[in-house]
Amino acid sequence: MIGMDENTGKRIDGVAYLKQRIKSVLSMRIGSSVMRPLKGSRLPELIDTPLNATGEFELQVAAIDALDDKENNGLEDFDVDTVKVKSSSDGKATFSVSGEYKPDGKPITLEGIQL
Fold this sequence. Notes:
Helix content: 25-40%
Low-confidence stretches: none
Radius of gyration: 14 Å
Shape: globular
Structural class: alpha+beta
Mean pLDDT: 93
Strand order of the largest sheet: 3-4-5
Order of helices and strands: EEHHHEEE
């Protein structure tokens, strides 16, 4: 797939574009897109969740649910295996997403997805 980099406006594709699409899906509240009302995740609802073991687990579940909903979230080219969540010193959650990138058929890990 080919798209536009959200920061530079330049063309991106492959794994870089996949990472950008995953970040977009995870940060979008379900129901906020007019054209695709089921696109997004429950993560914005969990914004005030404490980043302890229970909170990290809730964030993991919400992320996996969103990434597994391929039809609504436009991620048909990715099969998620695991999601890891770490809290950063500035109070943000950083996600590491592992799975299979179907165009290559190889496992990949996308790190540093910060919300």
